[in-house]
Amino acid sequence: NNAAADQVQTITIEDNTPPTFTAPADITIYRDADCNYDAGIAFTGDVTNEADNCSVGQATFADDVDDTDPCAVVITRTWSLVDDCGNQAADQVQTITVEDNTVPTFTAPVDITIYRDADCNYDAGIAFTGDVTNEADNCSVGQATFADVVNDTDPCAVVITRTWSLVDDCGNHAADQVQTI
Prior knowledge:
- The chain is mainly beta.
- The protein contains 2 helices and 11 strands.
- The protein has helices spanning 41-44, 126-129; strands at residues 20-22, 27-30, 48-51, 60-66, 72-80, 92-99, 105-107, 133-136, 145-151, 159-165, 177-180.
- The protein has a 4-stranded mixed beta sheet, with no helix packed on it. It has a 3-stranded antiparallel beta sheet with strand order 9-10-11, with no helix packed on it. Strands 1-3 form a two-stranded antiparallel sheet.
- Strand 9 and strand 10 form a beta hairpin.
- It is rod-shaped, with a radius of gyration of 33 Å.
- It starts with 19 loop residues before the first strand and ends with a strand.
């Protein structure tokens, strides 16, 4: 009996199926009272629906931060997922926008009475009537401005209604305040 020599066949079984996942939705988050923000996944979301035929792995992300406009920082978060066999899912992008929505605060000067000079003129400039105080904002306070409405129908008692406004550098408007002169 002549037997043939045994032959060995090697069969390699590999996993070539990439995992799947769902990146969190795009989101807008806001700066806090100190103008800071937290873009951690507790605030911006984590991936869901991680699945794989064998071993799912752990999703990771890398951020590209565009902070050229401090009023609207844009974080492009690229999520990646590789299973334990090295198969990579298609990257998914989440856009995180960071905005300042905190309105500034200020105190308008108190109502005041001023008097005409020897030539019957008056100066209602802020050096004589007062300027705002306590201007504050979490990021950028801006500059207070005013607009006057002058009622001079009675030349002996002119009434100036001065409406003070304050807008921070991100466009958030404080409530207007009125000073009567």
